[in-house]
């Protein structure tokens, strides 16, 4: 939104006719034009490590634990609880009803009767259901944890941040040299870009093209690649489910 406002102001203020590029850096991983944002991997590592510790404690006491993750309206962190061995993840992008909740509760009840004496459910702070938003589930569960994000950056985030920032500075330098060669400043038509990673490729995409891919009200891209992984969670948690995207 900031880049769109700055680029629109170029016609009135030539001071804004300078190279503009955004490097995505947010744990929410909700920037269009990039599969990953700097910080998202660190947050996911923190969540997974915390869940592993909680599962060890919960197994000995037959507890059901609900963990609330960060990320705004974007359910990336909660959905990727696949890595943490979660039994379910409630996210904004996928509304659910009482039948869904009942199915999860029945699954957890049967699971605790086996050799796996614990249940783990992740949820986003912003979800499309009054069932969890009202706090009913947290009152009935054996444990409830509001998980903040912290810790040292993961090796992936450190390397990704360094490489993508270096590429951004190369782009800015090239734009300035082009302007010097023309003997004038940049024009209002020069692109304002987001530098992201998509399918292992580092790509520059103009924000004018990306704005149609964004749900500005909820601050999430309209298409999210990780939603295709949703069916895998139930399969790995041993629900009676098949892989249908």
Structural features:
single chain, 245 residues, alpha/beta, Rossmann fold, 2 domains, 4-stranded parallel beta sheet, 17% strand
List the helices and strands and how they pair.
Elements: H1 2-8, E1 20-22, H2 40-59, E2 63-69, H3 76-79, E3 88-90, H4 98-113, E4 118-124, H5 130-133, H6 136-140, E5 143-146, H7 155-182, E6 192-198, E7 201-206, H8 207-210, E8 214-215, E9 220-221, H9 230-236
Parallel strand pairs: 1-6, 2-4, 2-5, 3-4
Antiparallel strand pairs: 6-7, 8-9
What would you note in describing this structure?
Residues 133-142 have low confidence and may be disordered. It contains 9 helices and 9 strands. The chain folds into 2 domains: 2-38 and 154-223, Rossmann fold (3-Layer(aba) Sandwich), CATH 3.40.50; 40-153 and 226-236, Phosphofructokinase domain (Rossmann fold, 3-Layer(aba) Sandwich). A 4-stranded parallel sheet has the order 3-4-2-5. Strands 1-6-7 form a 3-stranded mixed sheet, sandwiched between helices. A two-stranded antiparallel ribbon has the order 8-9. The protein has 245 residues and is an alpha/beta fold. It has helices at residues 2-8, 40-59, 76-79, 98-113, 130-133, 136-140, 155-182, 207-210, 230-236, and strands spanning 20-22, 63-69, 88-90, 118-124, 143-146, 192-198, 201-206, 214-215, 220-221. Helix 4 (98-113) links the parallel strand 3 and strand 4 (118-124).
């Amino acid at each position: 939104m900031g880049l769109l406002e700055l680029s629109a102001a170029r016609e009135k203020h030539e001071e804004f006719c300078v190279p503009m590029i955004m490097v995505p850096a947010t744990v929410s991983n909700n920037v269009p034009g990039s599969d990953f944002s700097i910080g998202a991997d660190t947050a996911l590592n923190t969540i997974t490590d915390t869940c592993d510790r909680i599962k060890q404690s919960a197994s000995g006491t037959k507890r059901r634990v609900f963990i609330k993750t960060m990320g705004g309206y974007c359910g990336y962190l909660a959905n990727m609880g696949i890595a943490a061995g979660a039994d379910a993840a409630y996210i904004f992008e996928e509304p659910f009803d009482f039948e869904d909740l009942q199915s999860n509760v029945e699954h957890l009840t049967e699971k605790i009767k086996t050799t796996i004496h614990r249940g783990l459910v992740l949820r986003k702070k912003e979800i499309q259901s009054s069932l969890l938003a009202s706090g009913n589930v947290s009152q009935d569960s054996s444990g409830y944890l509001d998980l903040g994000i912290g810790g040292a950056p993961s090796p992936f985030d450190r390397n990704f941040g360094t490489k993508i920032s270096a590429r951004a500075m190369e782009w800015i330098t090239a734009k300035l040299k082009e302007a010097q060669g023309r003997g004038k400043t940049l024009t209002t038509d020069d692109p304002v870009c987001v530098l992201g990673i998509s399918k292992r490729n580092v790509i520059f995409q103009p924000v004018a093209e990306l704005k149609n891919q964004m749900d500005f009200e909820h601050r999430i891209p309209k298409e999210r690649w990780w939603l295709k992984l949703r069916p895998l969670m139930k399969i790995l948690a041993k629900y009676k489910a098949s892989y249908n995207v």
